[in-house]
């Protein structure tokens, strides 16, 4: 799968890329919402791993850009340091899945595997 | 009525500060958990294998946790009045220059070059400026450039941080401002100052107002 990873914490980004690349995925890492939107406009991805709090603002900006996009869009997994989001939290209803930090590597791998067609 | 409002404000700030702290502590914890799991997967004969890169990642994450714990403790002590401040003289321009060294990827763009000096704790003023700079960028436009303006008016100096253009629905300061905001606010209050904030969608401005005279002198002046 081709995965876009938007995460501004360099260590976490580096580790996720290593794990998912080892699992056979192609991972493109970006550090800001603006870069993520730019990549999504020019490249087709199978999955987006998106940190909720990016250095240049709320990661939901990326979700909004995808929602405004005409045509097929990749599913989004929202990674959040806010703990577990409530089921009725509007943000969790706008994305495919929510992954709360700190998470287990197994959980991340299983989650990504669940999106493989 | 005013006392009740102040109490409510304080409670709100405390709740949001705790929320910010809980959020930020999860980042280094995530790194540590991932590094340990990777080391376990690479283990041989029951021995964890940590290469230099993983050790560096662990060290950075542990240092981040340590810094957060220190900040929380200092914030709590300031709130209880348990910290003795070192009183200046402190030059704001020098403090801004030192704050720039602490900020990674954020530029503090000075709109005025006026020389303002006051009886503030130099090291803590530097940290407050860096904290407000990071926070304004975070809840402002995220461009990496924060405007900073310093003005002396009467017995007070105002340091203003602005990110983004005003407009849109006003918003409250909340946990997403980051723990640095709440720590910086407490630093300003501890130095006898006050903080005034405005926030809207992709816009934030903080005005830190600090007394130009040490508290005892101000009191004498009033008498």
Describe this structure in words.
The complex is a heterodimer of chains A (117) and B (223). Chain A has 117 residues and is α/β, with parallel strands linked by helices. Chain A is 38% helix and 24% strand. Chain A has 5 helices and 7 strands. A 5-stranded parallel beta sheet of chain A has the order 2-1-3-6-7, sandwiched between helices. Chain A has a two-stranded antiparallel ribbon with strand order 4-5. Chain A is globular. Chain B has 223 residues and is α+β, with helices and mostly antiparallel strands. Chain B has helices at residues 2-41, 52-79, 92-102, 122-139, 179-190, 215-222; strands at residues 90-91, 107-110, 117-118, 145-153, 156-163, 194-200, 203-211. In chain B, α1 packs antiparallel against α2, α3 crosses α4 (122-139) and α4 (122-139) packs antiparallel against α5 (179-190). Chain B is elongated, with a radius of gyration of 20 Å. The two termini of chain B are 28 Å apart. The model of chain B is unreliable at 217-223 (pLDDT under 50). The interface between A and B is medium-sized, with 26 and 28 residues.
